[in-house]
Amino acid sequence: MIKQFIVDMVRGKGRPLTVKRRDGKGVMTFTPDRTVEFENEIIYKYKAIGGENFLQDKPFGMIIDIYMKIPKSFSKKKREQALKGEIFPTKTPDDDNVVKAITDALNGIGYNDDCQRCFLTVNKKYSVIEYCEIFLGDIEHFKLLQELFEKYREDHPEFYLDDEDLERLEDEEELERLE
């Protein structure tokens, strides 16, 4: 089973903040409000689709599509390129911080612990609105995707070889053998 849901905001996991207590006796650490808001929205949207801890302690996979709003400063041409996927968002938040916020929010709700995650694909693209689309499911449903990636790697070894391997492949006989 794969569960799919959309969260209508994008936030990275913020660093915990540490401040001195007012009474001067030690310090207090807390999660930034923006992070708490994003994590609560993830939980709300997941529960709204009937989300439950259906994975328990099984290995699972996730696909997370992060859609960033196109900046107002983009020209019409650049905006069109962004919508076609020719330009990608390279500004904050970092995709790994968004993933961390999502996986932390779903801990104990969609699965027991995010250490069970064995498959993850993250895409960061432009859109006219900002949102995240999340697919969560047991690993069996993601094995086909893994097989497709592995087949692609076999069919296109030139993308996955280091310089030493490429030098060896420059020999024509070696290239013909791969084709």
CATH superfamily: Holliday junction resolvase RusA
- Largest beta sheet: what is the strand line-up? 1-6-4-5
**In the CATH classification, which architecture applies?**
2-Layer Sandwich
Q: What is the fold named in CATH at topology level?
A: 60s Ribosomal Protein L30, Chain: A
CATH class: Alpha Beta
By DSSP (H or I, 4+ residues per run), the number of helices equals 6
Please write the string of helix (H) and strand (E) elements.
EEEHEHHEEHHH
The biggest beta sheet reads: 4 strands, mixed
Class inferred from helices and paired strands: alpha+beta
Head-to-tail CA distance between termini:
38 Å
What count of structural domains?
1
Shape designation = globular
